[in-house]
């Protein structure tokens, strides 16, 4: 798996801090998670720990972040120490996390879009399910199977899609976070049926797809037409997988 964020922590954080879609995305993840109060949260591909920290702020009992990038984990840990929010962290590839910890809510915001093959997608869901309590859920944000570069490059929302090419049974997308130098990353887009097959094969009992929750206040805060590309060619989509 190649998704090293170690050398692009600054560019990623600059993007994340300025992202106009982040408040929409966290609102969506919170709503899809249901009751959060007192729940144990595992934040996979946690990056800076943004989602876990937001869930703690909304009353979660605990939040633990896992990311394969030591640079992101160092940043996340320093931020949580500074804020005293109690979030804990671990550097690990989710593909081979140590077993033994189960959580009420497992978050995966931009993890599955790094699976470079259907086999990897399948193995990723299978690696994650043992960490979801029976009766708990995995809440996912990933690259929307319907997004097409030909309909817009997403630059208005802080990240630019440079290239989209066919890749195995899906597509490979090259994205750029602005900065000096800009940071390039590679994502993979898979079809809905591919996700659903991987999710069921991993052992989840139910799966549902959800659009990001855009509210009137988001629309009023921007110039007319600003959200056009987000609504009609959204790069993210959410899934709830129940165990
Ligand atoms: C776009 S960032 C998202 C970070 C965070 N979830 C957020 O939304 O701010 C993607 C993160 O996924 C991590 N990542 C990618 N593949 C991973 C894997 N197999 N195991 C653990 N972390 C992974 C990267 O290191 C990176 O920090």
UniProtKB/TrEMBL annotation:
| Key words, A-Z | Methyltransferase, Transferase
Keyword Protease recorded: no
Membrane-crossing residue ranges in chain numbering: none
Tell me a Gene Ontology molecular-function term this record carries.
methyltransferase activity
Looking at the record, the residues that make up the Methyltransferase domain are 41-136
Q: Which Gene3D superfamilies match?
A: Vaccinia Virus protein VP39
The keyword Transferase belongs to this UniProt entry's keyword annotation: yes
Identify the PANTHER family for this entry. Answer: TRANS-ACONITATE 2-METHYLTRANSFERASE, TRANS-ACONITATE 2-METHYLTRANSFERASE-RELATED
Give the UniProt record's GO annotations in the biological process aspect.
methylation
What Pfam families does the database record attribute to this sequence? Methyltransf_25
Q: What is this protein called?
A: Class I SAM-dependent methyltransferase
Q: Which domain of life is it from?
A: Bacteria
